[in-house]
Write a structure and sequence with these properties.
Blueprint: H1 8-46, E1 54-63, E2 69-73, E3 76-80, E4 84-94, E5 100-106, E6 111-117, E7 127-128, E8 131-134, E9 149-156, E10 162-166, E11 169-174, E12 179-187, E13 196-200, E14 212-214, E15 219-222, E16 228-233
Parallel strand pairs: 1-7, 1-8, 9-16
Antiparallel strand pairs: 1-4, 2-3, 2-5, 4-15, 5-6, 9-12, 10-11, 10-13, 14-16
Length: 237
């Protein structure tokens, strides 16, 4: 007479296999959903969704002439001092991979130049970044643009002191409660986002844009000067 076999280990093994398969399937589904959401959000930002007729632009304008001019682009009239650089961000413009119409006038409204500026971007770029230079070609009448170094101003509106590191270089500490400090010159191009590490007294690394902001207004400086980037650390943590 044979005794009944205990099949509980087998059933437990099957449950474990089903649980493992279900967990893996859930993880794959979650990753897929997040990826699709990220792609849709990115497509919205760069203006690639069907029916979306606008895109975002960051426009840099350089006036290499010794006279004040007005640069017209994307429906805006941007006044430029003699020998100056200005970056406007963000701007809303047409959704297309084609040239932008640029027109330059003097302060009396006389047209000095007009041309079509080629503009393009890859799928992974959220914004078009056209670079406008007047005059379009030639050396110009001003000092060369300083794109090899810049200063960085830290304004600390939080309650704690903040330790500052930029591009692997430890710069120092900015006191809390309204402390402000200018560091530099720092090697590099001001237009390239620096690797900025900010830590409070507790050792917590601050997160952009939750804890601090950068350049929330146009960059504006004179050719030959050292450009300045500005960072504002928020209160409340």
């Amino acid at each position: 007479m044979s005794l009944p076999q205990d099949d509980r280990p087998v059933r437990g093994k099957r449950r474990l296999q089903l649980l493992t398969c279900g967990t893996i399937a859930g993880i794959i589904l979650a990753i897929t959903v997040l990826f699709v959401a990220w792609m849709l959000w990115g497509s919205y930002l760069i203006g690639w969704l069907p029916g979306q007729n606008t895109s975002q632009y960051e426009v840099t304008i350089e006036n290499h002439s010794s006279q004040a001019v007005v640069v017209s682009v994307l429906g805006l009239n941007v006044p430029m001092r003699p020998c100056s650089v200005r970056r406007e961000l963000p701007l809303t413009g047409p959704r297309f991979d084609g040239p932008l119409h640029v027109e330059v006038k003097d302060t009396q409204g006389h047209i000095l130049a007009t041309w079509q500026l080629p503009v393009s971007k890859t799928f992974w770029e959220y914004t078009y970044k056209p670079h406008i230079r007047f005059p379009e070609t030639g050396e110009g009448e001003c000092a060369p643009d300083n794109r090899k170094e810049y200063m960085i101003v830290i304004r600390n509106q939080s309650k704690q002191d903040v330790d500052v590191t930029v591009n692997g270089l430890h710069l120092g500490v900015v006191p809390g409660r309204g402390g402000e400090q200018c560091f530099g010159p720092i090697p590099g191009d001001w237009a390239v986002e620096p690797k900025l590490i900010l830590r409070n007294r507790s050792g917590r690394t601050l997160v952009y844009p939750l804890d601090y902001s950068e350049n929330e207004y146009p960059v504006d400086y004179d050719l030959g000067q050292t450009p300045v980037r500005e960072v504002i650390i928020f209160d409340g943590w």
